[in-house]
Design goal:
eight-stranded parallel β-barrel, four-stranded antiparallel β-sheet, 22% strand, globular, 416 residues, alpha/beta
Amino acid sequence: MSDFIKIDEKTKNRIRQGIEENRKGDFEITFLDESNNPINADDVSIKFSKHDFEFGINIFMIDEFLEDWKNSIYKKKLCQIFNVATLPFYWNFNEPEEGKYRFDVDCEKQYRRPSTDLCLKFCLENGLKPRLHGLAYERYFPDWLISLDSMTVKEKLDYRMKIIAERYKDLIELIEVTNEMHWDEGRTSYYKDPNYVINSFKSARKYFPNNKLIINEAFPQVWKIMSDDTLGVYFTDLSSALAKGASIDEIQFQFHMFFNDQNDYITNRKKFFKIDHLLEITDKYTEFGLPLGISEITIPSYLNNELTDEEQADAIEAIYSAWFSHKAVHHITYWNLVDGTAGGNYGDFASGENYHYGGLLRFDMSEKPAYKVLDRLINHEWTTNINNISVKNGKLSFRGFYGEYDILLQNRKYHV
């Protein structure tokens, strides 16, 4: 483990115990024959199929690569590990001109903003749970709103939610409502409205009555406490919003290590990889009594060499293990799968977020150590597979990770 990651024995024990207690359970399955008599059988096999825990990735690069072979590998590699996909519902790309929507599969292409119907189709075909990102994300409001007064923008936002709900509410359970509410300036006059968050969740609940409504916030507003021991402003925001009746179902946090300089990252990263402290902050947010999730993670490997790639992998293993062990956390999303396809120009590593080399695959689609770490954890270490177990008096009992299983009994396969 890289020396900038600080994890003592007490924390290691907490993580091991947390995974055992929070991610596993004791199961008993009853098998009866056609006459409802209990079955007895030996040589039964149990194979883990799918996690209940949500492991996510954004799918902004679906059919976006210039080469067909890259598009094919991209789809294969994301489905190999992840069971949740974040879909791009940025308003300025969904509706670049008022009333002209980019939902359909065959709509005009925009880089890293594939049509929402195309993304949803891929999810449904591949067993991925879709997550809507950016319902009321003001940073990406369209230009045609900028000159409007605050009340009019509010009304337009309400109508946007209505249109999206009519099309997607029965297909997308996870709805991220607000995100990143601490920019110095917004794009519209409505951004400074003190009731922006309250109103957004009120409208969202009206149109998405049975969906899971999520609030999300950026790295500094959550984890700044790790460097200066002050309570993050996000905690205060949540206290206020919930006290005023905001209908929030889940609290999510970003964890992007977006340092503008590699040396700055090396100097500061030890503050953010004190795993006991990271868990303490996560504990603090359990006071709201709501499920927690990590919505966007980027861990850089700036030099794109063997050393920084291994450091990236070590950091990912440490934080994933910690959050996977936490009772309140049930969702972790890594942000970009492939280097050179983050926020910036395609394949330009001096452009925007590409500078960080924060993907799990290289631009040539080869696996970085970080991808292999997640594959090992999610598909091997955090699974339960048992051979040669017996069913006695119709009962199959075992302890395993929460999720779906395939059971082979007397040459018949059961999915549970």
